[in-house]
Amino acid sequence: MSARPLAILAIAAIILSAVVFFGNRRSEQANATDALFAPQLAHQLDAVSTVRIICAGETSLASLTRTEGAWVVDESDGYPANTNMIRSALTLLSRAAVIEAKTSNPAELNRLGLGELANAEARGIGIEFLPESLGLPGIILGDSTGSSYRYARLRDSSQSWLINADPEVPADTTQWLQTEILSIEGTRVERILIEHTDGETLDIFKSAPDQANYSVADIPDGRELQYPGVANVIGNVLRNLRLEDVAAAGEGLGTPEMRTRFDTFDGLVISAEGYEIDGAGWLVFSADVDTQFSSPDEATTAEAQAIDERVTGWRYRVPEYQYGQIGRRIEDLLSAEESED
After folding, report:
1. Which of 74, 218, 281, 287 is least surrounded by CB atoms within 10 angstroms?
2. What three-state secondary structure class fits 230?
3. Are 65 and 49 in contact (CB under 8 A)?
4. Cα(190)–Cα(340) distance, integer angstroms
5. How far is CA 238 from CA 94, 147, 260, 314, in A?
6. Strand, coil or helix: what is 217?
7. For the residues of 82-106, what is the DSSP string, one character each?
8. What angle is formed at CA 66 by the lines to CA 62 and CA 67, rounded to 5 degrees?
9. Cα end-to-end distance, the chain, whole Å
10. 150, 156, 158, 164: CA torsion to nearest 10
11. Quick check: pTM over 0.70?
């Protein structure tokens, strides 16, 4: 065959591929426009007051309740939820369109992660919407496929679908929480005073914000720091401090094992009390301004009030290494004593 017919065939193949490709794209777009996966949710999204997240064995992971425009997690004593994540997930589900019908065979649903949640081995995540008076069907989200598609079905139907959405729906209660507790940059922190219940104290400080390393007060005679910046980790511990769990502070916590005070150069004061509960470190925070050594401006005063309002009444479980930094002792910063021969 000559070069010319081959070229014509090649061009024809390219045109045919383009027609198929754009035809499929138009088909998907038509589905996305014309066939919503959960049209009832799209019409009543603003009326939903509670969203329940369920996993295998019908275990309730999180009950998310809307209160005055925000969301809270009931299982965590009503602590604020990650509102942005909830809104994103609900919006995606309300706009999700079916791409294609999949199996309706109950025996095959497990393969897509869409088996009945009563099964202890179920992989899917269930979502229920309250109040029941809305009549919204529950949803089961199965396995993800590709970058933005997911298998899904309505709980009252065995028909499964591939939808053009893959909302983030964590299978862990704490992942629904607003996890950031504090974010105080280390460059702001002037002084940290740690007081243990046995009377030992650790006092570290900077004379100016641009001082490279924290000074350590009252180093015992004949001892020295492990290295010059050994205390800097303590100064940075409140930067991006996130919870691993949270509960109402309640009463009867007893005497804290340490009290730690962070003073900033602009007058913000963060106080933390540390408690060991069931083998884990929990912190109770408060915030204020220090007018004795500085003159806080309005922004710092407002920041202190906002932090205090947010953390008052709560105890936070934080990562072990951060709890350890907030409760450091001077011996942790010193080089080992030289043995006498």
Report:
1. 218
2. coil
3. yes
4. 38
5. 38, 35, 12, 17
6. coil
7. -HHHHHHHHHHHHH-BEEEE----H
8. 125
9. 96
10. -20
11. yes
